[in-house]
Amino acid sequence: MEYLNIAIAKGRLVDHTIDILRAIGINFPDYHEKSRKLIFEDPVKKIRIVLVKASDVATYVERGATDLGVIGKDSLIESGANVFEVVDLGFGRCRFVVAGLEATVLQKHKFIVATKYPKVTNQFFTERGQTVETIHLNGSVELAPLVGLSDCIVDIVETGRTLQDNGLKVLAEIFEISARLIANKASFKTKHSRIDDFINHIQSVVNEKGAVGQ
Ligand SMILES: Nc1ncnc2c1ncn2[C@@H]1O[C@H](COP(=O)(O)OP(=O)(O)OP(=O)(O)O)[C@@H](O)[C@H]1O
Ligand SMILES: O=P(O)(O)OC[C@H]1O[C@H](OP(=O)(O)OP(=O)(O)O)[C@H](O)[C@@H]1O
């Protein structure tokens, strides 16, 4: 039997993903949180996981380097990748928002938005008929309006603590985010029965977890 390869966003999504895989009998004997290894295998179930940057998962899957991927909806949309989105995994829940010091900034004719997600940002404001200039940052986005780099930000909010600690308010909601299982389109055909079986197992664990409230 051929290996099924899965790219997982290292960071916040790894532990939940490993838990779900464990629940369907897939184990990686040498995996532990502090390991710097990037590839782990279950030699019995023939599953291989590779740990990559969240923003790179879609690239691995779209190009067929892996058959499947676990990725936040945020990174998936931002990537624009041509892949199948097959399961909403239900964890990694957070939301995309516009945030700033004052709601009045959104009334300006043109304003500057700092974000890690320029595509999501431009799409959102274009749909609202608003013209924005987007500044692409790689992190600590909340800082931008505080030092006059931007009028507002588009970023992820989970607990709301980062916004609160920096005196920022939610000015608009964009969409809800959770982790998704994605599939390479060619693998979906060539390894169809394996992938289908895998998806069904994952979906049943997700349904059970949902029933008891994640
Ligand atoms: N509080 C949160 N902040 C950011 N992402 C979150 C949060 N809660 C859940 N997520 C989800 O977890 C995914 C992975 O986030 P993580 O912080 O591990 O990487 P990242 O910040 O997107 O990338 P990196 O830090 O590697 O540049 C996000 O894409 C998002 O879907
Ligand atoms: O609502 P909260 O629970 O406070 O979480 C939201 C924060 O977490 C993320 O940042 P991350 O920790 O990934 O750091 P980053 O700024 O380097 O992206 C996100 O970009 C927000 O800044």
Automatic annotation (TrEMBL):
PANTHER family linked: ATP PHOSPHORIBOSYLTRANSFERASE (PTHR21403:SF8), ATP PHOSPHORIBOSYLTRANSFERASE ATP-PRTASE (PTHR21403)
Catalyzed reaction equations: 1-(5-phospho-beta-D-ribosyl)-ATP + diphosphate = 5-phospho-alpha-D-ribose 1-diphosphate + ATP
Biological function: Catalyzes the condensation of ATP and 5-phosphoribose 1-diphosphate to form N'-(5'-phosphoribosyl)-ATP (PR-ATP). Has a crucial role in the pathway because the rate of histidine biosynthesis seems to be controlled primarily by regulation of HisG enzymatic activity.
Pfam families with a match to the protein in the record: HisG
Domain ATP phosphoribosyltransferase catalytic: 53-203
Family per record: Belongs to the ATP phosphoribosyltransferase family. Short subfamily.
Gene Ontology terms describing biological process: L-histidine biosynthetic process
Keyword S-adenosyl-L-methionine belongs to the record: no
Listed GO CC annotations: cytoplasm
Protein name per its UniProtKB record: ATP phosphoribosyltransferase
GO molecular function: ATP binding; ATP phosphoribosyltransferase activity
Top-rank lineage group of the source organism: Bacteria
Record keyword Disulfide bond present: no
Gene3D superfamilies: Periplasmic binding protein-like II
EC number: 2.4.2.17
Pathway in which this enzyme or protein is active: Amino-acid biosynthesis; L-histidine biosynthesis; L-histidine from 5-phospho-alpha-D-ribose 1-diphosphate: step 1/9
Locations listed in the record: Cytoplasm
Quaternary structure, from the entry: Heteromultimer composed of HisG and HisZ subunits.
Location (main, coarse): cytoplasm
Free-text comment about domains: Lacks the C-terminal regulatory region which is replaced by HisZ.
UniProt keyword terms in alphabetical order: Amino-acid biosynthesis, ATP-binding, Cytoplasm, Glycosyltransferase, Histidine biosynthesis, Nucleotide-binding, Transferase
